[in-house]
Task: structure prediction
Amino acid sequence: MLKLPTSFKDKYNKLLGTEKAQDLFKAMNEDSKKAFRVNSLKAEQEISYNLTQPVPDISNAYYGEVAGEDPEWVSGYVYSQDPAAMFPAAISGVKPGDKVLDLCAAPGGKTTALGEQLKNEGLLVANEISATRSKALRENIERWGISNTLITNESLERLAPVFPEFFDVILVDAPCSGEGMFRKNPDAIDYWSLNYLLTCQQRQKDILAEAVKMLMPGGRLVYSTCTFSPEEDEQIVSWLVGQYHFSILKTGIKDERISLGHPEWADDNPELVNTLRFWPQDGIGEGQFAAVLQKSNTASVPKIKKKHRKKKGNRAATCLSQNEQELIAKVLDHYSLPVGLIDWRKKALVRKDHVFVPVISLPVRSDLHILNNGVELGILKKKRFEPSHQLAEVLGQIKQERVVDLSIEDYRKYLHGETVKVKSKLRGFILVSCQRLIFSFGKVANNEVLKNFYPKGLRK
Result:
C-alpha cells in the first residue's frame, strides 16, 4: 500500500471530487500495465510474443511483457514501454523527411518511436543532458537500427545556438514530479511536496524557453509529463500560449478511456480540452499528460549569440582514402545495404580511425558533445576494417544472406561473450542471429569457431 502524502490526497480530492479521487488512489495500488512496441523498420520476421492485445490508437503496440535477454529485444525488434508513454510520439505528426528534436531523450522510448515514424529519412536529434542516461539512449537507438540520428549530450543553452528556428517538430518529455509513476517508482513519493511541484514547473519553463528558440515558425511542439499535477500540465500549456503565442492542436486520439485536459485547472482556455490526460484507473497505462502545440508562422525569437569553447585534441573528420575504401569494401560488399548507405564511399568520413556516415554536417565551431552522428560503419585497424555493432543492427532492416543463426543455447553463450562452434562454410565477418533475428557481427575462423564481436558493455 502506497503511503501517499496527506497534502497529495487533499489536493486531488479537491480537484477530482471524493469519488474520482478514491478511484485514483485505489488504482495507484494496483499492478502496472506492461506493453511493448514492434519495430516496423526491421526486416519482417516472426516474433514469439502475443500480438492479440493492441494498445489503443498506437501502431504496432501491444500489452505484454518482454525480457531483456530475449532475441526480440537484443535484436531491436521490440521495445518495452509504458503504454501511456507511447502517446506523445504517436501524436507528434512526424513524417519522413522532417527535422525532429527529442530534447529530453533518455532512455529512448519516444526517440525510437520518432525514428520509426521518420523511416530513416530526414533528421532526428536526440539530446540528453545526463551523461549516464545518454549511454542507455545511444544503446537503444543503435538496437532499434535508426540511421538518421544525431545523439548529443548537451545543455540546452549550448544546443539552442546551433539550431536556431531549425526543427519541424520538437518533443519535450519534461522532467517532472512523477506523480503518474508513483506505483512503479514509490521512491518518487519521498520527493513530492507542493513546493516541489513549483520547482518542477520553473524547470519546465526554463527547458521550454530554450526549445522555443529551436522550433521553426509554424512548427509543432509536443509537451508531455508523467505527472497529474496541473501546475506542470495545463498551466504550462497556458503559459506557452500566453508567452509565445502557441495554439493548441487536436491530437486525433479517439479512445473514450483517455481523458481530456481541464481548462478550469489553468486559465479557462477552452483549447485545453485538446490536451490528453492518462489516469491509471482508465486502464491504458501509467499517469501521463500530453499536448501538441503549434508555433505562430510569424513568431520569431531574438538571435542568440553563439559561445564557443576550444576543442581539445579533436581533429576534423576527413574523407576516406582509396585504400581505406578498399578495406571497408572487403566487408560491406558482402551485404545488402539500406538506401542511406549504398553510396557510403561518397558520404563516409573518418575520425580517429572511426568510420561513419553522418546524418548532418555541423559547423566546425559548434563544439557540441556528440555521441553519434548517423551510422558508425566501423573502425579501421592495421590493414583491416572491423564493422560496428550499430551497422549490424542497421543491416537487420534488410534480408541478408551472410548470416549464421544460433541455437538458443549458443545465443546465450554469445551474449555472455563466449566463442561458439558453428557449422558453416562462411569465413570472415558474418552477421549473427537467433531465431533469424540479427543482433551482432561475428567472425568465423577456419576451425568453424565464431569469434565474439558482441560489445563488452552489452554482454549479459
Notes: Residues 256 and 282 are 9 Å apart (CA to CA).
